[in-house]
Design brief:
single chain, 107 residues, alpha+beta, four-stranded mixed beta sheet, two-stranded antiparallel ribbon, 28% strand, disordered N terminus
Length: 107
């Protein structure tokens, strides 16, 4: 069973910035290469798999974080019709143990 991120010690919150480039290069229905996954990678979170309501992590395996409603709505809109979405930012609470490498900046 997956463990969702909570307010326990060790969890941290990051800002995720989805850009026009993420939208243009993101792939519909692809958990590891959609715009939010690209933005997470750029923010230093590798191995993120984005679903409709949460992000699953492969390092450590089995951890997940619930996305805010705004991010979930973005996933649905992007997968439905890419032209209806715009860049946005949101905060994501990462579970303890999910590593964040130095930010890669824009790609």
């Amino acid at each position: 069973m997956k463990k969702a991120a909570s307010k326990k010690a060790g969890a941290r919150t990051i800002r995720v910035d989805v850009t026009w480039e993420d939208i243009a290069r993101g792939k519909k229905g692809e958990a590891t290469s959609c715009p939010i996954a690209r933005a997470l990678d750029r923010a230093g979170v590798a191995g993120a798999e984005v679903g409709g309501f949460e992000v699953d992590f492969t390092d450590p395996w089995g951890e997940s974080a619930k996305m805010p409603k705004r991010a979930s709505a973005f996933v649905e809109a992007f997968d439905d019709d890419r032209t209806s979405v715009r860049p946005f930012s949101f905060s994501l609470r990462l579970p303890k143990g999910v590593k964040v490498k130095q930010s890669r900046g824009a790609r």
